[in-house]
Every structure is written in C-alpha cells, then in structure tokens.
Design a protein that fits this description.
GO terms for molecular function: ATP binding. This protein has seven helices and 13 strands. By secondary structure, the protein is of the alpha+beta class. It folds into two domains: 46 residues; 210 residues, no CATH class. The structure holds 2-acetamido-2-deoxy-beta-D-glucopyranose (8 copies).
C-alpha cells in the first residue's frame, strides 16, 4: 500500500513539473508597485492584476474599459463595488445575489464566510456586515414556530428568523442540530412578518484583507512580498531561491495528501 502510494506520488511529481514551469512565467520575480484598474484608478498591494498573479489579490478585467471589475474565489465571483481603504473593499457576491433575485431559498443557507478566497501565507480574508441578521438553520422543525418572524423549509433544512428577544434554548439548538448564519441586509431591523426577506437580504458586504506579518516586514523595508511569501522581492535581479523551494513545497504538500 505504501509502495503504491509512493509510486503515485512520484508520478504526480512528474506531472507537476510542467505546471511549475508555467507558474514561473505567471509569477514574475518582480511585482509592479502600482497598476491601473479602470474607475478605481491606480492600485497597489495587496491588490494586483491578472498579469501579475501571485503579487496579491488579483482583480479581473482591470484593463477592459467599462467591464465590471471582479475578484474570483473557488466558490463564487465578487463584483468590486468600491475600495474603502488599503485593506478593505466592498463587494457583491454574485452567487448570493442570483439566488436572492430568483427567490431561491438556498440563499438562506449560503455561508458567505465559506465562499471567501482561501487564506494564504500572504493574505487572509474576513467579512464585515454593518447591517446583518442571524438566521437559524436546523435539521428538524422547532416547536413554537409562531415565535419566529420567518420560517421556511428548504432542501431538508428549517430556516428561522427569530423575533427580537426570543432565545432558542441551547438544548433545543443541539437537539435539533441548529446552526446560525449571518447574512447582510440593506437596512437595519426591525423586520416584521410583512417583510419580503428576499429583497430585505442583499449580497453586498465589506471584505477585510489582512496582510501577514511577514509581508508587512517586507513593506517596512521598502520591498514587496510576492507569491507564497517565501522572501521579500529585492530591487536587484538574480537567482531566485524561492523557485526550487516553492516546487519542493508544492510537491511535498501534494505528496502528503496522496500518501494518506
Ligand atoms: C497589469 O499591470 C502592469 C503594471 O502596470 C501592466 O504592465 C499590465 O499591462 C497590466 N495588465 C493588465 C491585464 O491590465
Ligand atoms: C438554487 O440554488 C442552488 C445553488 O446555486 C442550485 O443548486 C439550485 O438548483 C437552485 N434551485 C433552483 C430552484 O433554481
Ligand atoms: C482567515 O483569517 C482570518 C484572520 O485574518 C480568520 O478570522 C478567518 O477565520 C480565517 N479563515 C479561515 C477559513 O480559516
Ligand atoms: C452583524 O451585526 C452585529 C450587530 O450589529 C455586529 O456586532 C456583527 O459584527 C455583524 N457581523 C459581521 C460579520 O460583521
Ligand atoms: C412553547 O410555548 C409554550 C407556551 O408558550 C410553552 O409552554 C412551551 O414550553 C414552549 N415549548 C418550547 C419547546 O419552547
Ligand atoms: C440539499 O441537501 C442535500 C442533502 O442534505 C445536499 O447534499 C445538497 O447539496 C443540498 N443542495 C443544496 C443546493 O443546498
Ligand atoms: C403578522 O403579525 C401581526 C402582528 O404581530 C399578526 O396580527 C398577523 O397575523 C401576522 N401575519 C402573519 C401572516 O403571520
Ligand atoms: C530588512 O532590512 C534589514 C536591514 O537591511 C535586514 O536585516 C532584514 O532582514 C530585512 N527584512 C526583511 C524581511 O527582508
């Protein structure tokens, strides 16, 4: 079994080699300090454009005139609404927006946090919603459903929006396999039973981008951290020790996954 896994691991290493060569082309040694991005003007780290992947969070369509600027994650696409500061942007989650528009109740089970771009050694992501409501999602229906402003059954889940001051007991939560989910709303509550929850909820929120300590250290030295944050970029060209380290790292990580 071990031998078989190891063979697969070796085969994988070989199949990764061309990919690594591609990566080297995509991730240049030097990251541009600034770039132009349509109506957002001149941007800098932690953002980057699609020509310089690995230099930050890539914004798509920076060069295409009037097209919406977007940020992609494995689970959704975000439309960039505004840049609110160096480490904060307002975005609309395209998938959630579509579900709300088509009144698809899956919207009420949509985990905004799980759709964020994955944290890396360079950047990490968080959500800030000035106005939000907390929905309860349970496997089983709760008693006293009149105490909830909103109740809907959706794909094997019972979704509730509790009326204010109504506490669902902890035992009740565990027993019915409930979890909570925060979603953004366009204005603050109160909500009553005449509110159309599909239009009351919306898909825009603030995405906070934290730069890792290692990357910040680079910036203090007037350099910039780039792909996978192994080293700060330097102004002088030269042999790049990161490349072999990056290759080893990818192969090791993938190898480990394959071995278990
Ligand atoms: C990205 O920015 C660099 C530096 O400003 C520029 O040379 C390149 O053309 C830009 N690429 C796109 C796709 O906008
Ligand atoms: C609702 O959205 C989910 C997730 O995007 C999708 O899988 C499902 O087919 C949609 N349902 C309807 C009725 O459109
Ligand atoms: C990403 O990092 C932030 C801290 O910057 C943390 O709050 C969040 O839980 C992390 N996300 C994941 C999926 O680990
Ligand atoms: C949701 O709203 C509450 C109350 O206004 C706030 O404390 C909380 O931080 C908000 N959640 C997020 C993720 O911003
Ligand atoms: C439901 O409401 C009734 C009357 O208000 C109360 O006696 C009962 O304990 C409640 N049940 C639960 C599970 O909260
Ligand atoms: C519906 O529920 C099933 C089983 O719980 C799950 O596998 C599926 O992904 C759910 N579909 C959506 C669109 O949430
Ligand atoms: C909405 O709430 C009002 C007052 O709390 C109540 O009289 C009315 O019956 C409720 N309507 C529905 C559809 O639940
Ligand atoms: C920053 O510069 C100092 C002095 O040149 C050097 O010792 C240090 O290693 C540099 N830090 C990083 C993160 O490159």
């Amino acid at each position: 079994m071990v031998q078989f896994s190891f063979l697969r691991f070796l085969v994988l290493c070989y199949s990764l080699l061309p990919l690594l060569a591609e990566d080297e082309k995509k991730f240049p040694w030097k990251c541009p300090t600034t770039f132009q991005c349509g109506k957002f003007g001149e941007l800098q780290f932690p953002f980057t454009n699609t020509s310089n992947l690995g230099c930050g969070l890539p914004i798509m369509h920076c060069g295409d005139g009037n097209q919406f600027k977007t940020v992609h994650s494995p689970k959704t696409i975000y439309r960039l609404e505004s840049i609110d500061g160096i480490n904060s942007v307002s975005v609309t989650d395209h998938r959630l927006k579509k579900m709300l528009k088509y009144r698809n109740c899956t919207a009420f089970t949509y985990d905004l946090k799980a759709a964020l771009p994955p944290n890396s050694s360079m950047l990490s992501f968080q959500i800030e919603m000035k106005n939000n409501i907390t929905l309860l999602r349970c496997k089983h229906a709760l008693a006293n459903s009149t105490k909830y402003i909103y109740h809907i059954s959706c794909n094997d889940s019972e979704i509730y929006y509790p009326s204010q001051n109504f506490e669902t007991g902890k035992d009740n939560m565990v027993e019915n396999e409930c979890s909570t989910l925060e979603l953004p709303i366009s204005s603050s509550p109160p909500v009553d039973n005449s509110t159309d929850i599909y239009t009351f909820l919306h898909a825009e929120f603030r995405m906070l981008i934290s730069v890792s300590d290692n990357c910040l250290k680079c910036q203090e030295n007037g350099t910039q951290c780039d792909v996978h944050n192994f080293h700060c970029t330097s102004s002088k060209e030269g042999a790049d020790p990161r490349r072999s380290k990056l290759a080893v790292d990818i192969i090791l990580k993938t190898g480990i996954i394959y071995m278990f």
